Amino acid sequence: MSKQAIHTDNAPAAIGTYSQAIRSGNLVFLSGQIPLVPETMEIVEGDFESRARQVFSNLAAVARAADGSLDDVVKLTIFLTDLDNFATVNAVMEDFFEQPFPARAAIGVASLPKGVDVEADAILAL
Fold this sequence. Notes:
Blueprint: E1 4-6, E2 21-24, E3 27-33, E4 36-37, E5 42-43, H1 48-65, E6 73-80, H2 86-96, E7 103-108, E8 118-125
Parallel strand pairs: 6-7
Antiparallel strand pairs: 1-2, 2-3, 3-8, 4-5, 6-8
């Protein structure tokens, strides 16, 4: 099966040896997004909610570049450096996802790139 790299300037550029997403057949694997503002490549200002919103906005931009949307997400993984932020992530997700919600894992981690406190990746089925 072939694979196709997906790229958009509406999401942060890759800061390593990876693609923003890879499409293989009808599946699209979105790389982890952190709360970087695409235009500046700086962490969004504000509180945890602002950072979580930026993460989902970035995922949505990559999904659109793959001719999909967050409604096509079948699996979502969220990485948090503080699991006390779990309820805020749930509240933010309600603004970005509709039922049926994707399958999801929320994982507590010691650290994330650039010292951020939230990251998420996703799998879309188109």
